[in-house]
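(Deposited chain)
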Amino acid sequence: MAFRYGPRIVPAMARVVVSRQLVAAAAQRTRHPALTACLTLLVGLMFPSILGGCTWLPSEFNLSPLYRQRLAEDGSPLEVDVLWPIFHYEQTPEGGDDFRIRPFYRRVTEPETNIVGRSATEHQFLWPLGRVRSDGQESSHRFFPLYWYRSRPNVDGLQETDWYALFPFIWGGSREDGEESYFGIFPFYADLPNFLTYDRLLFVLWPLYTGTEKNGNVGNLFLWPLVGFGSGPDGYRWHRALPLWMFAEDQAYWRWSILWPFIHFGTEARNTDRPIDHWMLWPILGHRYGPHVSGWSFLWPFFEYLRIDDRLLKLTLLWPLFRYELDDSTGFNLERWWLWPLVARTVTDRQWAWSFLWPLIWFREYRDPEGTQEQDWFLPVYWRVTRDGRDGSHDDFTKIWPLFHRQESLDEDGTATRGDWSVLSPWPWRESNAVGVEEAYGWIWTLAKGRRRAVDDESFHLAAHLFTTRERSGRTQTSVPFLFSYEGDDAASTLYLFNLLPIPLGGSNEAPASPTEIPSR
């Protein structure tokens, strides 16, 4: 395979060991030419001795840690490293761009084929503290704990904006129709919608006064949480002056506490034909009773017994050492028991679980409308999570902490579509709790890594790219810094001695594969 002359490598950028086509392609793909220009200038400043030279580079070129590039057959950049591990660029599997100045900054673009159906751009800096993301409809910014901002359309299509500064002290937000606007400075004043579990939360000189609204129920508290009263629809009302008394009532219950938390009494489910009366002299003795209920507690929570017909049974002895529970009241047919910390068992219609030597050893299985998930945990050294989808797909994640992890996704035909593995692998979390971590800091601990970006795209590299290889759409690119690089497919292959001198290795005489077929190897 010959050198990538002409349009593949332009002399002006070859002088700084970065091709103009690479930079132009990145600028066109990212639609952020200013960022690309800054990178070009920075690289030029770092290599002033070669500004007057002219270097012709093959598509697979490796002088790591100084410079490394891997170009596609059309000359577009797939991977570029400058002064590894600092500057890194790669094309995402979806066709977007991923540019990093590790460990400080990362910029990722997502084409319209992403999960929300809109193109998006995300900036990450000092991860996980800083993040800016926009997809045309929704934008969010954060630099925790100094600032957080989000703007997005609500269910009615109206744009809503929420923000805070110096978490958790300053809050604010608005809606585009002007019907909602709020602001707060803790602890002086705030009027906040949809905050914590409330529809609205108001406070003035907290804890002197706090007002709450939830599902039509309104509450007023003074010297939170000691004194307050409230009311709502369907006869709901409450008042308290802790620790003297506390009272609450609605259609389903009434509850009294005197000298809280010591004396309690009341009635539950009073709007049904199965009311439950109860009293407790906490923590010494408590009793629940009714037409279908019998229950006692002694030195709560150490000893407890409760039975509701054949629907519910709870027995606790020397909590937390022993517990047995049988509950059919929720419709999930729960059976659970444990002899802590030696063994525990849970079974419902949708899941089962065993644990031994809590919390070290767990075996679990969950079933939902989308599929079945199984988990095996031997903390902290080993865990495996698998999921079988109803469509026949399969996901498998295995970790031997902190040495190794492997994850793989198979489609309904059993074909591997995505996955990766790594040695070492000290980050203990995965999925949403691992976003951006490996990209920013993985170079610190990774000795070897394999990755599958697509069905026909698989790669492997050692630390600092001391050896790197990638097979993509039947084309293989391999290199060792300064020693050699290799490019080949079924048609032809070339070895580049010292990453520069071409040695054609020939190829097969087979006819080229159909454009709709993946060449066989």
Remarks:
- The mean pLDDT is 86.
- The helical segments are 11-14, 20-30, 33-46, 437-445.
